[in-house]
Amino acid sequence: xxxxxxxxxxxxxxxxxxxxxxxxxxxxxxxxxxxxxxxxxxxxxxxxxxxxxxxxxxxxxxxxxxxxxxxxxxxxxxxxxxxxxxxxxxxxxxxxxxxxxxxxxxxxxxxxxxxxx
Length: 117
Description:
The structure is a single chain. By secondary structure, the chain is mainly alpha-helical. Among the domains are: 11-47; 57-99. 56% of the residues lie in helices and 0% in strands. It has 7 helices and no strands. It has helices spanning 11-22, 27-33, 38-47, 61-72, 77-84, 88-97, 110-116. The chain is elongated and about 55 Å long. It starts with 10 loop residues before the first helix and ends with a helix. The mean pLDDT is 86.
């Protein structure tokens, strides 16, 4: 197995990294643009004194309430995640925080499927 090659950024590249982050790109996007690890990009930003952005909640209260209603009505996580454009882990976490009992993953059992009819 070949060892991973380290990519060292020049001062000009770090300046550009900081500028791109300032335009609104997130750390993952900036890291990908400069072919560096996310942690490396974060370290460059910290060294330059760039304040980190607060994590933005993906689902607001209204969208979460809508997702809870759909999930309670029997809609699957996969469909909900695709419609909302979010990761299943995010939806699972938000539903759990909201006190919604989660169904077992997979296809509905015969009992659940017949209850819908």
